[in-house]
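Response to reviewer comment R2.3. The reviewers asked that we include at least one raw input/output pair. We reproduce the pair for Gamma-glutamylaminecyclotransferase here without editing.
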Amino acid sequence: MRMFFPICEGRCYEFLASSMARVFVYGTLKKGQPNYYRMFDTSNGKTEFLGTAKTVKKFPLVIAGIYNVPYLLNIPGQGNQIHGEIYKVDEKMLEFLDDFEGVPTHYQRTLNTLEVKEWVSGADGETLEPGSITEAYLYSTKTYKPEWTKLPTHENYDSYGDHGLKYVEREARD
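Raw output as returned:
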């Protein structure tokens, strides 16, 4: 059965319900970050780590708001190439991530081109060499405050980094 995901921004890509989609995470969902556990909570769906990569295009990655949330501003060509991780996720996990990221109003899910840094052979045996080009969905926003474009940009987000802007987890918010 073929399904379409109309919530994606720009071109929508056909997704086979029985297949897995690639998702690029660059913020609190990465290994060692506050929301990483959500990627492997089986009640959210199925996830498989594939490797690390960086965006081919530059984007501004800023830390903003009272909760110090990392936002990837959808302004291609500005900022830095963004470093993150590629996961293969099933439809249930993709739906969870869309909900978690507030698609389509808070974030928009778009297909972007990535350069592989390191690849861990997936369960299907697929391998990609460092420097290879691949695609994955990522979550970025076009709905940001104008002053966010003046914030410092980052290429590799770490909630515990020397920027001093530790992410406030959802459970700890008022």
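The chain has one helix and nine strands. The chain has one domain: 2-157. Further pairs are available on request from the corresponding author.
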